[in-house]
Amino acid sequence: MSSVLTDYHRKRIQLRSKILKSQQERIQLEQKLQSLSSINSGLKQQPQIDHIQSYFTQLNQESQHAKKRNSQLLNDIIQAERNLIQIRMNIEDLIRLKSGYPQYSETKYPNWQKPVSSETNRIINNNIYNFDRVPQQRNSK
After folding, report:
1. Distance between CA atoms of 52 and 37, rounded to whole angstroms?
2. What is the torsion angle, in degrees rounded to the nearest 10, for the CA atoms of residue 7, residue 11, residue 14 and residue 19?
3. Contact (CB, 8 A) for 29 and 63
4. What is the mean pLDDT of residues 97-110?
5. pLDDT tens, 7-65?
6. Under 8 Å CB-to-CB from 26, ≥6 apart: which residues?
7. What span, in angstroms and rounded, lies between the C-alpha atoms of 129 and 55?
8. How many CA atoms lie within 13 A of 24 on its CB side?
9. d(C-alpha 56, C-alpha 60), whole Å
10. Each residue's pLDDT tens digit, 56-95
11. Please, what's the b/e burial string for 30-65 (b: 16 or more CB within 10 A of its CB; e: otherwise)?
12. Rounded distance, CA 45 to CA 65, Å?
């Protein structure tokens, strides 16, 4: 469990640093785009502006895709952690039930381990397979 959490926290830190780096790149590109757009030097800079705009659009799309993917991964990890916690609670309940069962059995059924008398054993053995010979009650009219 701790290795899963360690991996989760490590990946979470890595993903946050990637997001921050992408945001910084985006800000720099926006600034560059604004500076190039503000310079009105005609057709000479238009191909550069177009290239930067398309690159910025591509980065923006990749960033959105990465955010969605990271969000889904985070949700999956959170769900897995919830499942692990539930399994751990179930295991603890089962262990508690298992450890308390002998005492419960002894208090609820104190005579369950006592040997059956030979007479009771004979009656059980004689009647156990004689279901078809059980006397029927007759209805009196």
Report:
1. 10
2. -160
3. no
4. 86
5. 888 888 998 999 899 999 989 988 888 777 776 555 566 787 888 889 989 989 999 99
6. 56, 59, 60, 63
7. 87
8. 6
9. 6
10. 899 899 999 999 999 999 999 999 999 999 999 999 999 9
11. eeebeebeeeeeeeeeeeeeeebeeebeeeeeebee
12. 30
AA letter at 112:
W
Q: Which two tokens stand for residue 67?
A: 């955010």
Provide DSSP, 69-129. Answer: HHHHHHHHHHHHHHHHHHHHHHHHHHHHHHHHHHHHHHHH-TTTTSPPPHHHHHHHHHHTT
Question: How far is 15 from 21, CA to CA, in rounded Å?
Answer: 10
Distance between the two ends of the chain, CA-based, in angstroms? 75
Determine the Cα–Cα distance for residues 15 and 20; give it in Å rounded to an integer: 9
CA 8 to CA 19: how far, in whole Å? Answer: 16
